[in-house]
Amino acid sequence: MEATNLLSTLELLCAPKKLDRERGEDQLNNISLTSDEVKLVSSWIEEKLEGLSNWEDVFGGITAAIILLRNVDYGSLVDIGIVGKLEDQVVQCHDNPEFRVRIAAGQLMGSLCRHAGLSLFNRYLPTVIQGVITNLERNTEAPVSEAELSLRELNIAKEHSTNLSSSSLSIFHDTAGWKNLETWMKCLQEMVSNLPSKDFIKVDKTNILELTFKAVQHVNRFVRETGYDVLSTMISRHLCYTEPEAKEPTYINVATQLVKGLSDNWSQVRMAASRAVRTLFEVDPPSGFTRDDIYPILLPAMCLNRYYVAEGVRIYSQDTWCRVTQGEGRRLLGQYLVPAVDYYIQQSDADNHAVREASCASMAEIVTKLDSKLLLPCVGKLLDALIVCFGDESWPVRDAACVALGSLISTFPNETRASGHDDLMASQFLRNLNDSIPSVRDGAAKSIAAILKSVDDQNLFQHYINHIVEKIDGLSKQPKESHGAESSRVSGKGPGASHVTVHSGDAAHDSRHTDQVMYSCGSLAPKLQKGRKGGGCHDGLHQRTSEPWEEADGAIRLIGQISNMFPNRVTDDLIEQLLKGCEYRNYTHYPYFLETGKHNL
Asked: Tell me, what DSSP letter sits at residue 159?
């Protein structure tokens, strides 16, 4: 290849546009370099790294060095002297203000460690550890980035808006960048992943593990996420024991740290921890330990995340559960039921409403899928936790708690009455049956029908029939201008379903949901304080009074569920009530009421 063409390819590595840089990488990767061309590229790399001024030049030089190490014989690179210069200069690149340069520098250090082995790893390790330690704490007097300034402006705006419920300090620490900490952690990950396994076993992991544990507990969620990625890499390199046959207590410590990540308020952190958990189960446990030692620690959180609102976490967790349990999930959950129940109850009190919803779904699962004899000692604890969630200010949580309670009470009606709920919580279920959210009303109707089927209580049955008559008669009081969520648009059930209320007409311009700050699902606003109004696409904390048509809608949903459970009890009077409700057509939302009536008829 002509020198001019080779230089043109190299200059593409320093192009301002990412597409051009990637094109340069592809071209250089596909070139079979002669010894003279290797020397030319080496000289070009030295020139680019010596300047340390323009970030694109430095980035291009590092990229070319990584490609050389990948495609050219390492011994020949040592002979021409480029390796020694790279080993010395690459550390300086971590002072570059451009994060892409620092990330590339970490990749280059990993490539060098792959070839040079333990000696170079031990040479770099103190510098990397010091880089992490130095950046673990923020210098509040240092200049801040534009993103951080925006967050501070948001905090100032909070003082003038009742809709912003989060503390400025919490938002600032949990979202703002933390200098070079993340890139130093990525560098450590590259070094660990590239060091040959036979060499990594000889490394003293005490400082690395201590540093990683600090990172996964850091106040900033980006640092926690990177920390779990590093931990996952270290687990894959047999972090949990020094020698293949040695016994190390770090196996339990690692599992304890992982469960904190599986319970994190940020979905990205949960995902990183989930990847690390899968890796932990893919690696054989150290001698003297079995998976039974970490099952009670990790299984409850793994099980709960199968219902988490973030789709990526939910699907990944479901797949991990299948891989780990191999069809024995029900047996394992029954075996470790007590820690699972305790974890679900703990998570039902989490600040993040999406976590509370997932915990209710998990409690419903163990009630419906496990032997009732196993659950009997836990009924009281489950009942108390679900009753609290039944009154949650977030409607998806109320909905999930209602479904779970319906399953629990229908399975243990006597135990529920023994706990002081003689009417089997009829008043609470009727409150949900009257809710302004269609899916909440539907869940309440199904739960009530399941409870009625489990007990032979004519008084309780008549109590619900009286409610149906009362609410359908109440349609005569429905104003012409009605409000509410259309059932066809809010039809999702369970975690991950869309819980968005569609507003129309004057309601679409209501100040409560106009020009307000919005947040990421399951992250900032929902996690900060349980039950407070904070915005976000799942905000169900503003609970308006239900209208007569919505209460009647719940009543005919109950008629439909009763007809499924008790076909012989569907009398002409009930059908008359349903048809009577469909006669009222003087309000805006009557088509949606008719839709429910038609479905249940």
From this structure: T
